[in-house]
Amino acid sequence: MNSEFSVEERNEGSAWVLAASGELDLRTSPELEERLDRIWAAGAELVILDLRQIEFMDSTGLRVLLGAHQRAQETSRRFALVRGADQVERVLTLTGVRDMLTVVDAPEELLAAGESATEGV
Fold first, then answer.
1. Would you say residue 81 lies in a domain?
2. In the 3-class helix/strand/coil scheme, how is 59-86 assigned residue by residue?
3. Chain segment 20-76, per-residue pLDDT in tens
4. For 93-119, how does the pLDDT look when each residue is reduced to its tens digit (9 = 90+)?
5. How remote is the C-alpha of 118 from its chain's centroid?
6. Is residue 62 included in any domain, yes or no?
7. Is residue 1 part of a domain?
8. How far, in Å, CA of 22 to CA of 80, rounded?
9. What 3-state class would DSSP assign to 105?
């Protein structure tokens, strides 16, 4: 399990989708944290972090997720996760973090919900 960490970003109006891959750990968490900070600073209303390609996540990765969730709450914005691999889900479930966060199967679930909420306006 020595895959390179990477994050792809995609803007969807006031929403951003970040698709992370590789290992989210002590070495790579600062990169994700920087990206999240930059996107929040740019005024994102919704940030969706796609964990489907994360192979491993440790407690520092968990801390980044909790920090993003807290920042969203403090600024009346939204933060959500796309369900990850079994190891990632196990970490989220065992620590109780999964119950605190919005978790979906695909980014489109939230992006489509946002569009339909504004269509009738």
1. yes
2. HHHHHHHHHHHHHHHHCCCEEEEECCCH
3. 999 999 999 999 999 999 999 999 999 999 999 999 999 999 999 999 999 999 999
4. 999 999 999 999 999 999 976 554 434
5. 23
6. yes
7. no
8. 19
9. coil
